[in-house]
Design goal:
heterodimer, A: mainly alpha, Rossmann fold, 3-stranded parallel sheet, two-stranded parallel sheet, 7 helices, 5 strands, B: 79 residues, mainly alpha, 2 domains, 3 helices
Chain lengths: 136, 79
Amino acid sequence: MILVDDRWAVEALARNLPDTVGPAPVATTHAFWYRLARALVDPTVRGVLSHEADPEMVLALVLDPPPDRLVVLDPRRTIREAVHAAVDHSANYLLAQLLGAAIATGWPVRVSSQGARWSSAMAGEGIEYAVVPVQN
Amino acid sequence: MVWCMHRTNIYLTEQQEKALDAIAAADGLSRSEVIRRILDNRLRMGSAEGVERALRAAGSLLAETGERIFAEDADLAIR
């Protein structure tokens, strides 16, 4: 299983994952899942969605993702590793959950973009990590 | 609810079996329940092509939307 950010999570839900990210299903954290759902209720995004489908149907797919496409990790499984990672790497909640998930599961991480501390934090924890930009 | 279900056997590839076990462990579900949910989701979505097209269309907006929404959020910003 591969851990991904919100941007790759939406591509997984759309069955649009390239080989450079990994085969479906992929997994994401509760924080990235929240970011994705929150963005989808943004009026601008809903306007785009409405050209193709009912925005509520799209949101329903995100809120109850088909497990053959996307798995949302239960934060209770990774909270211990996440809080230690937050302290060790001065990580915010988003990064701490991602680090915690990768440490707890041992799964590789693929993200579409990254923050300033992400690479060094992942390397410091020995996590297989790559930034794979989405080609629009 | 077992009494109103029908027993069936299916063949899975090794990769599918590993994925099924990983999903079941991640969600705290039995293998059977994972398979039932996948089927339920597929049935509920009906013609899923429109939804998938909508997701692809929205995907390109998500990066900038997320950046804007979470720019001042210390917990959820990419920083």
